[in-house]
Design a protein that fits this description.
Blueprint (H helix, E strand, L loop, with lengths): L7 H5 L7 E5 L2 E6 L8 H13 L6 E5 L16 H28 L6 E4 L2 E4 L2 E6 H4 L33 H5 L13 E7 L7 E4 L2 H8 L4 E5 L2 E6 L2 H14 L1 E3 L11 H6 L3 E8 L9 E8 L2 E2 L7 E7 L2 E6 L4 H12 L6 E5 L11 H12 L6 E5 L2 H7 L2 E2 L2 E9 L5 E10 L15 H4 L33 E8 L15 H19 L3 H7 L4 H14 L11 E9 L6 E10 L3 E11 L6 H20 L5 E2 L2 E2 L17 E6 L15 H16 L10 H9 L2
Parallel strand pairs: 2-3, 7-18, 16-17, 21-22, 25-28
Antiparallel strand pairs: 1-2, 4-5, 5-6, 7-10, 8-11, 9-10, 12-22, 13-20, 14-19, 15-16, 15-18, 20-21, 23-24, 24-25, 26-27
Length: 707
């Protein structure tokens, strides 16, 4: 198998030595800019490298997200880690293996076909040659550009890829030492930061004497502009100080969100930049009714169980920062810019946090720690956010309003289709739109004004428009995107961005059209699908769940179906959910079929699908950020409920075997189909459809009482 095009990560980091080094006998250092955020990526990338180099997995030393020696691969996001990062490592390792084999063949004056590799040792006709990667490392320079032309192994020969390998990151976590929060150094200084409650808020008054009394032991208060921090050798003291300051601070000015922020009516009132995209051509003649429906989703918060944490040290003019950022190389660049340092004097070291699903506060915490560390040279500064600050100041996933309309043909199939979306941007990560997007930097005096905001480009999957183009065979499709760039809060990336809301809307609408046609929802979908992989996933989920064989369910129970291909280029996933509905939704069982092409780590793939299912259910059933008096009203898990362990039913997953197809991104594939399946099941159970999320007890009761 020969690669004709290079993955983006290899284009950006084309030198082999950026990826591979044989520095320690018996060990291979493999670099990756993709980082572990709970998805098992370190294990899967290790499997890829070990397979292509013919070494044991335990011989791989995977260095991830360390900016001085790891390739710069942007953000770990968008389900690109294996499809792009893993593909880059596969090509690099194949080329390195080929270079060494050619060198051995030349030295031994034999054809390459007589050679093999076992645990990094080169064999000829199965016998030892006395040569290995490490003894030959000085003979072959890896300071050369990757060509991408070396043959990679055929899947039929794999011994490591596609097999179970225990997760490499779990032993330390189980032992209580695997997270950034566990790092303890000598001479440690603790810090907390007082956060602005809304964008542009000015601190009008703060009783510093009362804050110092609350701390109980001496603290330092740093204030520059609206950036206020409390430092001490005692973590308890800065915790008490920050809690007191949060209650005592008086704020004014800035842009406060109104009471109806996030509602469909509010979204449609905002100034917008509009773009219309038409695809397809008129096909079936409109002969039936025109159907339209509107859907909405609210603002959501990041909701990671563990709060963000960072450490930093400024010494001899150089800054080191330890962060669970999803983009260490990008963070390095923007820390340098915001702090006025040369990039060469800044290094970021990735350390794992408590799970990540998008743009959380890891980058903000890294700035906090770095800014404070520069005022205390030689000290290691540790910043940890509180749960209250996470709710109040973290980036939030944006609300959306979606309108769908279709004109039907004589067979009640769409002859014309339109989707219209109102949404603020789904990404304000560091560096996007040329803004630092670091909360502490924006609070400093003379902070640069925000550049005009945009969304994720469509060629990168889109933000609000992600999965907005239905995968079904539609003759003509019109997409109208109303980008709302001037909303008064920092909206950014959460798992799937706009995809899961668009899938919820499209798959709900498909069910509604199936009802009009008097057809089974699965059969109706199949009538609009010719892609064989899409059909196979839909059919597999139906078979797995016994969709067509299901007997009449007890009263109050129903099943729903949801399907999508993430970004229309990544993994296919179809989900069936059985629910019981009384005053609330109870999940009874969930089935999922997925096609991810070549699966590197089957257990990790299932974990990703299960995680997406659970989070997708939480999104549509529970979650909503509320605003009161211009600020986020949610402060604890009590007023921002998420799905609990007790809510999770049995989940059955089938991975479709497709090893000769390229590996596809999987991490976000099941989120949208799960939400859609729950919405469709609820509609069947109630006989009424709820189109506005979340599908809470209050909405269900209001729907039932309105009959």
């Amino acid at each position: 198998m020969i690669s004709n095009t290079l993955p983006l990560s290899l284009i950006d980091n084309p030198i082999l030595s950026q990826w591979i080094a044989f520095e320690q006998p018996g060990r291979v250092r493999v670099g990756s800019g993709k980082v572990e955020i709970g998805q098992g990526i370190l294990t899967a990338l290790t499997q890829i490298a070990a397979e292509e180099l013919d070494v044991r997995p335990e011989q791989i030393n995977l260095v991830s997200g360390q900016t001085d020696i790891s390739p710069a691969e942007g953000f770990t996001s968008g389900s690109y880690s294996i499809a792009v990062g893993g593909a880059s490592i596969r090509l690099v390792c194949a080329e390195v293996r080929s270079l060494f084999l050619d060198q051995v063949a030349e030295e031994l004056r034999c054809p390459v076909s007589e050679l093999s590799i076992e645990d990094g040792r080169f064999l000829r006709a199965g016998k030892e040659t006395g040569r290995d990667y490490w003894s030959m490392a000085g003979e072959i320079t890896l300071d050369r550009r990757a060509s991408g032309t070396a043959p990679v192994k055929r899947p039929s020969t794999y011994r490591i890829v596609g097999k179970h390998l225990p997760r490499l990151d779990l032993p330390a976590k189980v032992a209580g030492a695997g997270f950034i929060h566990d790092i303890a150094t000598e001479n440690l200084m603790h810090a907390r930061v007082l956060r602005q409650p809304w964008r542009g808020a000015n601190l009008a008054a703060l009783d510093e004497s009362a804050v110092r009394r609350a701390a109980g032991t001496p603290i330092e208060i740093i204030r520059e502009g609206e950036f206020v921090a409390f430092t001490s050798g005692s973590e308890l003291a800065v915790m008490r100080a920050s809690e007191a300051a949060r209650a005592l601070a008086q704020w004014q000015g800035g842009a406060q969100p109104p009471a109806d922020v996030g509602s469909p009516a509010w979204l449609k009132r905002q100034a917008s930049r509009d773009k219309t995209t038409d695809t397809g051509k008129p096909g079936r003649a409109p002969a039936g009714r025109m159907v339209e429906a509107s859907y909405s989703r609210p603002f959501l918060t990041y909701g990671s169980i563990g709060t963000s944490c960072a450490l930093a040290e400024f010494k001899d003019g150089a800054l080191k920062a330890w962060s669970h950022s999803q983009g260490p190389a990008v963070l390095r660049e923007w820390l340098a810019r915001a702090l006025g340092l040369p990039s060469a004097q800044v290094n970021v070291f990735h350390r794992q946090g408590a799970g990540a699903y998008g743009h959380n506060t890891a980058d903000d915490a890294a700035f906090d720690a770095s800014f404070i560390a520069m005022r205390h040279p030689g000290r290691t500064v540790r910043v940890q956010w509180s749960r209250e600050d996470e709710f109040a100041a973290a980036p939030i996933s944006t609300a959306m309003a979606i309108k769908l309309s279709a004109t039907l043909d004589k067979d009640n199939k769409p002859a014309d289709w339109k989707i219209e979306i109102w949404s603020p941007p789904h990404a304000q990560r560091p560096g996007m739109n040329g803004n630092s997007n670091l909360l502490g930097a924006a609070a400093l005096p003379n902070a640069p004004p925000l550049n005009p905001l945009g969304d994720v480009p469509d060629e990168r999957g889109g933000g609000a428009t992600r999965n907005a183009v239905a995968i079904y065979d539609l003759p003509r499709h019109r997409l109208i995107h109303h980008l709302l760039p001037e909303v008064p809060m920092r909206t950014s990336s959460l798992r799937g961005l706009g995809a899961w809301a668009n899938v919820f809307a499209i798959e709900s609408f498909i069910d509604e059209l199936a009802d009009i046609a008097g057809e089974d929802p699965v059969n109706y979908r199949l009538s609009l699908l010719t892609d064989p992989r899409a059909r196979r996933v839909v059919e597999t989920a139906a078979r797995l769940s016994g969709w067509f064989e299901q007997r009449k369910l007890p009263e109050g129970r129903a099943r729903g179906f949801g399907f999508a291909r993430y970004k229309n280029i990544a993994s296919f996933a179809a989900v069936v959910v059985e629910v019981e509905v009384d005053e609330d939704i109870s999940l009874k069982k969930i089935w999922c079929a997925a096609d991810a092409g070549l699966v590197i780590a089957p257990d990790g793939a299932r974990n990703q699908l299960e995680g997406g299912i659970i989070q997708g259910a939480s999104f549509v059933m529970r979650e909503q950020v509320r605003f009161e008096d211009g600020r986020v009203a949610n402060q604890t898990w009590d007023d921002y409920p998420i799905l609990r362990f007790s809510d999770i039913p049995e989940i059955e997953i089938e991975l479709i075997d497709n090893p000769n197809e390229p590996t596809l991104g999987l991490g976000e594939a099941s989120v949208g189909p799960t939400g859609a399946a729950i919405g469709n099941a609820l509609a069947r159970a109630l006989g009424r459809r709820i189109r506005d999320l979340p599908l809470t007890r209050e909405r269900i009761m209001a729907t039932l009482l309105s009959e």
